[in-house]
Amino acid sequence: MGILTGLLATILVFFSIWRLDHHIDSRLALLESPGTPLYSDTYLVSPGEKIPLWLLHTWYAPSEEGPARFPWKKHTLVLRGLPGPDPVPKASGAFNATFYYRLVFDHRNQTLLGIFPEGVSPDGPPPSLPGLWLPPVFMGTLVQTVVGDFRPVALGETSKKLRTTILTSEDRRFYDHPAIDFEGILRAAWADLRSKSFREGGSTISQQVVKNLFLSPRKTFSRKIMEAIYAWRLTRLRTPDEILSLYLNHLDFGSGAHSRIIGIEAASERFFGHPAKTLNFRESALLAAVLRAPSRNNPFRDPDQARTVRNRILTSLYQAGKLSSRQYARDRRSSLGLSSLAYRTSRPGPYFSDWIAHEIRNHPVRDKNGSSFVFTTLDPYLAHRSEKIVTEELLRLARTWRLSFRPHDGEGLQAAVIDMDPRTGSVKTLIGGSDYGPSPFNRAIFAKRQVASLFKIVASIVALTPSGGQKPPYTLASPLSNAPIRLRAGGRIWKPKNAEKVLEDQVLFQDAFVHSMNIPFLHLSETLSPQEVVDTARMLGLETPPAARLPLSWPLGVLPQTPMAMARVFSIVANGGRDVQPEGLPDPGRKPGRRLLDPGVDYLLNHLLRLTVREGTGAPLQFWTGPQTFWGGKTGTSNRGRDTWFVAVSPQNVLVVWIGFDDNTPTRRTGSQMAVPLAGAILRNLPPPLPPGPPPPGIETKTVDARSGLLALASCSPDLKVIPFLSGTAPPAETCLSPSPPSIFERIGHFFGNLF
Q1: Nearest partner of 587 among 429, 376, 419, 423, judged by Cα
Q2: Per-residue pLDDT averaged across 616-635, rounded?
Q3: How many domains does one find in the chain?
Q4: DSSP string covering 478-546, please?
Q5: Is 582:420 a contact under the CB 8 Å cutoff?
Q6: Can you give the residue ranges of the Glycosyl transferase family domain (predicted)?
Q7: Are residues 165 and 306 in the same domain?
Q8: Pairing relationship of beta strands 411-420 and 643-649 according to DSSP bridges
Q9: Which of 123, 124, 129 is closest to 102 using CA atoms?
Q10: Is the dihedral of CA 573, 577, 582, 583 positive or negative?
Q11: What's the rounded mean pLDDT across residues 376-389?
């Protein structure tokens, strides 16, 4: 019996080792691959467009076929592409374009003057093409679940000084010890004990490879045991040189100016502007310093801290006999030797790239594109312009309203921006913060914030939608109470107020929405079914508690949502009421979403949104779009301006803008003052929306009295409104009311309301 038990135990051990080795081999095959290149969508450039020549040169120079095909001549650039604007090609078609065109710029290299086929006859200037679809722009390499600047190289393509520095800093006995270095662990523990801080680690390079590339980062005892077992087997499956090469190629140097920096080759190019095979001891020590704490020791953000840690590593090299006294003294005094231009090399859409990596974590990329490349929906130039606008506008807003803004530290005022095609769900731009480098947290998809008055779109859908063959409970002309209201919440009495003083005791539904009044919508909410509200919100993709736990203040948007969730909601409204999912990878097999909103109700909602920009809280947008705009919109402002929102809506684009502080510091400003200016600056880069089409069947327009909402004759009062209704829902009879003039108290109230 004992022999049989021992035999079974032996078989089980060998089987476990075989399974572990198979898992490690499979993982290594993936890690040793060059990664998956990620590209933007194709995009159209036209004569007269302001697009800098240097930007196109930065995007395309590394991918073209040498200087003959890409001459760096004054005011001229030669690029591959497809004539436009029609037909619109697929990204893969523009990517594989074989014809070259000459792009001619103005004397400042900022405005495109003309597009001409390369090699045309010199007999007179040829006519310019109306447009050119340029190839997708390289955005980075997808490595596991991260998109970044990744350039794997063989170990022999790195300098010996670099390898010496890394081994001295991280694992001095790498070539002598097995997977675990007990002597190194004791030495690190003694050094930490003497310094009374955790300054050194005891993990070998093999353990670090396992920790970073095979296991989760959680610090638990069981994970530490697994780390040792994996490291032991890794040293049996790969030589020390292969393990060191894997380690160097997957080092994470944190977020650069426009993308994550992965691997020693990318780090050398981005920090110093030359390949890793030419790194000296001084540069290698700086990279080792960054490696220890990529954010804290980043030399572009804190050069003094980076220099201190670099010199500490140089001291270790000197004590180990790798540097002479003269060289050690010279390197300690030397500058950091950084290449600012290389570090800030522009890559479009870093937040968008992170979102793509997050989205395809569990989805094979080949299912989307059918190739080893990944083409996305990003508009690279719109993304580039929007990122610049976000930084400029946040700086202007911070100065205007005296708010904190420190973009180089990733602190202070922040923003999230999403531009989405509501017809397809294609996300054209996604920005998750003020500056990706110091603040890579993607607020556009992960930050849950109070959406304030944006949530009134849900209340409006419930109130205006017919149910069970019955008429809807409300129309746009329904009067809503504006009487002061008291609500008990959390054992305290809450007295909500409107953002603007409105003295009338009742207002029309349309006016309450357009001017974003809180009190009328709270009165409205008391008549709506909480279950219908929850069902409608969840149908639109929003997160809500069960109906029994729905807070009384739900119409004011106290339920936190992400900007991406709000982009989906307003895209459903913008596209005619059909379901749509935000997507960053084009799906040629996409089918139209199922209808979620009644076409007539959707028409009423878009009427409200356009009216909000024409005469409501979104009216400041006209400064950027002009008064005859067809944009719709909705503002939102949470308590004391902790969250400020604006959503611009058209059948072709939905733009969501959020501005606020990560720590909920009040801005004490409104969405009209904060989010609308940023949205307006971005909308200048988008084509103006087309005029709205005719209303769908079942819509009729009536003239009503602006105060009562009842049907009125033109001779009744000059204060009339033309309002659309679902057929059969307008007031039944014409009414001629003689509106009473405002009382003296109303006049005084209006006077002081206009002042304050």
Answers
A1: 376
A2: 94
A3: 5
A4: -EEE-S---EEETTEEE----SS----SEEEHHHHHHTT-HHHHHHHHTTS-HHHHHHHHHHTT-----
A5: yes
A6: 151-316
A7: yes
A8: unpaired
A9: 129
A10: negative
A11: 94
Name the DSSP class of 66: S
pLDDT in tens, 78-107: 888 999 898 889 998 899 888 889 898 988
> What amino acid is encoded at 200 in this protein?
E
Q: What is d(CA 681, CA 419) in angstroms, rounded to the nearest whole number?
A: 13
Q: Domain of residue 110: give its range.
A: 37-137
Tokens found for residue 648: 């611009």
Amino acid found at 386: S
Question: Is the separation of the CB atoms in 706 and 719 below 8 Å?
Answer: yes
Which burial class, exposed, middle or buried, applies to 697 when counting CB atoms under 10 A from its CB (0-12, 13-18, 19+)?
exposed
pLDDT at 371: 46
Residue 4, CA distances (Å) to 1, 10, 17, 18, 151 in order: 5, 10, 20, 21, 53
| Whether residue 714 has pLDDT greater than 70 | no
**Cα–Cα distance measured from residue 456 to residue 509, given in angstroms and rounded to the nearest whole number:** 11
Residues 406-415 pLDDT 10s = 877 778 999 9
Residue of higher predicted confidence among 58 and 67: 58
Nearest-angstrom CA–CA distance, 192 and 188: 6
- Per-residue pLDDT at 193 exceeds 60: no
Q: What is the CATH number of the domain that holds 539?
A: 3.40.710.10
pTM: 0.84
Eight-class DSSP state of 408: G
Residues 339 and 240 in one domain: yes
DSSP three-state, residue 578: strand
The letter for the amino acid at 704 is V
Please tell me whether residues 463 and 608 are part of one structural domain: yes
**Chain-centre distance of CA 112, in angstroms?**
29
| Most distant CA atoms of the chain, gap in Å | 107
pLDDT at 257 over 70: no
Distance separating alpha carbons of residues 60 and 67, to the nearest angstrom: 12
Q: Is the pLDDT of residue 665 over 70?
A: yes
State the pairing for strand pair 260-262/146-150.
parallel
CA distances (Å), origin 60, targets 119, 387, 433, 677: 20, 20, 26, 33
Residue 308 to residues 297, 317, 330, 512, Cα–Cα distance (Å):
9, 15, 15, 60
Q: Which residue has the tokens 């040792």?
A: 228
**Which of 343, 364, 396 finishes a domain?**
343
Contact between residue 429 and residue 567 where contact means Cβ atoms under 8 Å apart: no
Name the average pLDDT for the chain. 83
